[in-house]
Amino acid sequence: MINLIARENPKSPVSEAYRTIRTNIQFAGVDKAMKTIVFTSTAQDEGKSTVVANLGIVMAQAGQKVVIMDCDFRNPTQHRLFKLQNKGLSNCIATGKDVLEIVQSSGTPGLDILTSGPVAPNPSEILASNRMKTVIEELKEKYDYVLIDTPPVLPVTDSSVIGSIADGTILLTAWNQITPAMAKEAKTRLEQAGAKILGVILNKVEVASKGYGYGYGYGYYYYYGHEEKANAK
What's the rounded Cα separation, in Å, for the pair 66 and 164? Predict the structure, then answer.
């Protein structure tokens, strides 16, 4: 599987699905700009970080200035996906260094990456700190979108903490990997923390062909807005 398929194969059906998600996010910000968006999942290994990376790429390809913040201090992934040095957010928080001096180019014009930095012993406290809020405000001044990659909801509280101060949150769930009850519990926890849920991405859907001799297989993504997500209760 190609992790950064939006860059390696931009004409693929999966890349087109990412562009659909991008469009839905833009419509979600018609009344109020959605600049800071948290991405989380229900549980582990649902493909969240790969979705964030590819979404950042298609946003940049459309002419937006985008930065991906890897706030998953427990299992950082963005530096591996983009093959970057993992010197980033935790360094910035600890030293007070200017965040704009720490962001790195992704290799895609218009898309920068703020890696997690060394694994921190107190992730939730870092995410709730005043310094974190300052970093986010500084990034909002430079970028059109700040995409925040956070840990899954059910194991830890990190995504709920950061979701409460972001403009919106998108929950990712994997097809046939979690139960409806788990997804409902994740949604409830986010809402109780004050997160504004923009929608849900259903990941790892296998699309069977019907008479045309092909299928999109693993990794086809869909976006559901407010009305559709209510059906998951």
Answer: 21
Q: Does 225 have pLDDT greater than 80?
A: no
What span, in angstroms and rounded, lies between the C-alpha atoms of 29 and 22?
11
Strand residues in the chain grouped as ranges (E): 36-41, 66-70, 104-105, 111-114, 145-149, 168-174, 197-205, 220-224
Query: Rounded to whole angstroms, how far apart are CA atoms 107 and 104?
Result: 9
Q: For 108-166, what is each residue's pLDDT tens digit? A: 999 999 999 987 778 888 888 888 899 999 999 999 999 999 999 888 888 888 888 89
pLDDT digits (tens, 9 = 90+) for 165-216: 899 999 998 887 888 899 899 999 999 988 899 988 888 776 554 433 333 3
The conformation of residue 84, written as its DSSP 8-state character, comes to: -
Q: What is the largest CA-CA distance in the chain?
A: 59
Domains of the chain: 12-66+120-232 (3.40.50.300)
Task: Give pTM, 2 decimals.
Answer: 0.85
Question: How many other CB atoms are found less than 10 A from the CB of residue 226?
Answer: 11
CB atoms near residue 96 (< 10 Å): 10
Q: Please calculate the CA angle 132-133-139 and round it to the nearest 5 degrees.
A: 90
Distance from C-alpha of 93 to C-alpha of 82, rounded to nearest angstrom: 22
CB 90 within 8 A of CB 61: no
Burial class (CB in 10 A: 0-12, 13-18, 19+), 82: buried
